[in-house]
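pinning this so it doesn't scroll away 📌
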Amino acid sequence: MHALAPDLVEKIERRARKAFRTLDKGRKDHVHRISDLTATSCTYRLPHKTSRSAYSGAKVTVTRGDDGAIVVPTALPATKLDLLSKSDVTSLLKDHVGTVRAYKATKKDGTGTQYPSITYEVGKAYEEKKAVTDEGLDCAAGINLADLEWVKKERPKDGGRIFAVEFEAPDDLAAVPTRSDGKFRAFRCKVVEELEVDASGDVKPARGIIGRLKDKLMGKTPDDQV
């Protein structure tokens, strides 16, 4: 959950109360950031921040009870951020609160391309307590992850694999380097699935070794993918 600042909750309540008051008088005067006004509820849209926070522009539903009491949520549910491109990493990741889906490129045996101390497997969780938090370092100790476009481009060509992982921000995030090209470091993550890139460049769930062998026999899969 992402807590809303007390002063923001008060501001939303004032706007909602004003909107309900105009409705009670038989009018529907425009109240800034209020929409979907009914006798029992309305919607307040949070402003879009220049930081492009994950909660910028989010909608808050305000309700009014039979006794006239107005209830404003004090927190918003956590959202999931899927890192598909470099801009998602450099512009959205630092501000995000909640689950993050990122990607890991490995060698054919599932080990990291630079630091092969971990063998990644679907369903398992990993931790690097000594992940470096210095954002001035482009590459350092930690679970090095990236956006999807980065791993598609940079994965080893001789049977390199792609894993989708998830972690919780900000607690599991170690550092987004100042000069990040889409890579960043995490303390912890869990591998949720393995992916593969087809001939057209589209990403889909991996079929596993049996499926790849069948494709090879049918001439659909290069030798280095089996």
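📌 and the second one:
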Amino acid sequence: MGLAVDERVEKVARPLRWLTEFWHHPRKSWIRCAVFQVHLWSGISVGIIATLVGISGSAIVNKDSLDKVLTPALFRTTSGERLTTDQLLAAAHVSHPGWLISYVSIQQKPGAQRPEPWVFYLSPPAVHRAIHLTLAYFDPVTGKELGTIGEASGVMNRLAELHFRLLGGPTGTAVNGIGAVLLLLLCMTGVVIWWPGRSRLRSGFRIQWRARWLRFNWDVHSVFGFWSSIPLAIEAFTGAYYCFFIPMAAVMVFLLGGDVHKWHEMSVPPRSTLVIGQSPVPLEPLVQEALRRHPDCVVRGLALPLAPSDSVSVQLDPPRAEDLGEYAQVVSDRYSGKVLSDVDSRRQSLAIRLVLFIRPLHFGTFAGQWSRIAWILVGLVPGILFFSGFVMWWRRVPARLLKSRER
């Protein structure tokens, strides 16, 4: 009887031996060896990309403030009552005849002494079609053009282009997304490799500052990697989300139990009813109607129609837009002025609000200036990990090969 019980216990315990071995003696475990290879080649594949994206991301966390320091002339607006939306749009057309205006960034700030400039996103005439848009800055009070800059020109815009698209357009965005997935894999495998064993757990949290260079390099890689694994995983996941936005957003809403059809309605504005021969209605009443519907919000921007059946979207920021990713949007028919859609993310399901929270999570605005500072530091970590990891790899593989050839 006792022998039979022992055999049954042995059968149950046998599959768990690998876990027990990893728990107490991870360096002897085949799991660690296998995960190490995945970690190594993922790091080699994505290390340089993660370093560049991390550093550029840290640089653009406070992009709006730095833009004002680097290009102050574009932000020298005057105090007073602003012109109407239609007057400012006419001023932009006069300055850039024949150009298409797809969007106007307004970025109203409640209580500000001077208004933010209105930034018109311009596309050149079809015969001179360019890859990147031109941004034209206008004083909303005088209608004077303050200057123009290319969407990917200037220090901060160039860094943003590097961070989002690796300076490679749509192809760069796809490569960036794949790199984000590999970085997420690095974070998960790194925690497995970091595990020092139950009896040596405390040593996994310490850096031996007086140790030899190679030991110090290992400690830096291990300890920095462990403590930054969660924020880096957040950045990697949210980065992949933005690179593959349309499929990932729908999948996440579905997995969280939300209404994918509702998400689609929020993401794709309804169309205007085309009326041949009828002129579009003025835009200022549409802006005022949006503010009337959402009195606690400020205008963030206008998505303007390009095709005849496109609608006009007035985008607004609620008081906690930066912290929670909230927004409101009122879409109107360009010919009749009729409101076609009125969305306030604060009234949506928990699933949709969680998906919208990805924005402040990625850009580090979820806890004000403190989270911005933390995310600036997190952005520097991939470079530290890549350098320290490269040193370890070089010592183990290329350096040994070179020595063997010399002999």
